[in-house]
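Standup, Tuesday
Yesterday: got the pipeline producing structure tokens again.
Today: sanity-check two examples.
Blockers: none.

Example 1:
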Amino acid sequence: MKIKLVSKICILLGLIIVPLTAAGVFATWKYASPLSYEQNYDLKMVLAEDVHIVEASFSEGKGGGDAVVNGFIREFLNSTAKLTTVSTSTATLKLKVYNNARETYAYNAVKYHAEQYDNVDIVVKPSIEHGDMIAPGEYLEFDVTFSYKKGITPSNTILNSYLEFDFVPLDKLPPKEEIAVDGALAQFELIINDVNDTGSFTKLLNQMDDGANNNRNDSYIGNVEGATDSDTELLAELFQGNLKLNIDGVDTDVTVIIKREDVDGNANTGDAEGREMAIYLTTDGLNRIFSSAPVYVAVFTSDDDGNEWYQLGQMYEGTANVVGYGGNIFGTGSFNTDTWKSTNRKTIQDLIKAL
């Protein structure tokens, strides 16, 4: 989600905008002198039409736990949780959000990137569930509790974090298993449209073209088990944290394979050779031999030989056979894109050609 602020918002809220190290779709801000909606009704007129955090404060601590709200803006919260060496220590914040849209929104997930969460021994859990709704013009209050992971002997007791509380229109609420791949897909579209000589797409193509030094051919690249360090490191860099997210307190890795292939059967679209860019995504562990795994696919094409890319259709859900690196049918850790079929047993070529 891109964040845009107009000067009027800054004046009303007293925002101090300080860019910090941010990854992917996340933004980081400091916030000064927050005004609640009750204090300034005009605020509703200038904020974007979606769900905003309007209040955030410490609620309670157990075992000596405490927490400080450093700031918030839109759906992003910056806080510091201060637990103790008591293993049952917790700290709870109370958040209040407002739906400034004209339609019902639903809670999707609380998400963060690893680099924006500096203590992996502490987990975060909201009291709301995926799918909980908030009507237009309504408020919703919920708790956010920080606690130690099970089995941890506390040593590092402080957590600094930037959390995104993601609310989406009810009719666009994805299944819970799609949450992580949505972020990776959004970042992929940014990558392939950064087409200057030193841009992300050039880096991606250069790495794909170096298949001979990466134990694969030049038609694909992925971060699957068995891929070379140079492949996985380049993808991690380009995806800016969107291949490793924490979703509602659960670490989630996204495995991705990117392919150059003619999907739409039209030699005049795609790159100069008529090939689309297809991205295959899964959060499955890919650890079951002779099995299939849920895999999502999205296809991008171009009308000007790859200078500008756009998505064909939607992101499609399906399955693909689990294999080892290079297609070893007796292995695990990867999947065979050639075996992908949608939930209604269509190939990706069938789906795209039917558009």
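Example 2:
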Amino acid sequence: MSFYSEWLTDYDSRSCNSYIIQFLKKEPQTTAALLNGSNEDLESAFSVLNRVPLKAFLDVILTLRLDRTMKTSEVLQYSSFYDGANRIPELLEFFPNGESFVNLGYQLVGASNEAANRKYGENHSRLAETLNLVSISESKPRYAKNTAWGRYLVQFSFEEKQELFKRFLLREYYLQVILQQAFQGPVSYFKTVSFLAESTATRRRSNTHHVLNFILAGTDWERYLENIEWN
């Protein structure tokens, strides 16, 4: 039985913290079914992740020990969340063996030069990878390929997938760090990303702001966004 099938079988909104912790920490068993799982595994994941209230994930984030060094790649960078979360997997349905960053970027933005297309394709493929929708090759030239989860979710509209995306974004270590601090008091965005060059931190600020609003808007936790100083 896969992780999500087991979670669904054992589901009890009052006692699923151990599953949430494993999910938020990206333990191997939480990604295996998403990468190569059966349709039953994927249906279980879709069902249980939608069923567990967002509040349960946020409550667990408050309890996590977050003290390791962060990496530049852990601060999201993209131009269009929709392109990464929705369009990349849709395009990859036409390329079952995967497609290059350059060609994906061209399909999405149609830039006049190869470097711009490659950068756009890479940034949005990386965002899709964050959501476990695609896998990215280790060898160069790198390409993206739909995971089982990415293929499964293509059948749903972007609106139908938004609650799932919020839960997957909460697995990102940097977002856990800034949220945990904001839930407890004032926090400076620039201090949380002090490991980045100032220019990089400035470029990625809008992405962090957008993602946090996307996750918390309309919830009882939205007020904590006021604790974040962005300048």
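Quick observation on example 2: The chain is about 60% helix and 5% strand. Residues 198-216 form the longest helix (19 residues).
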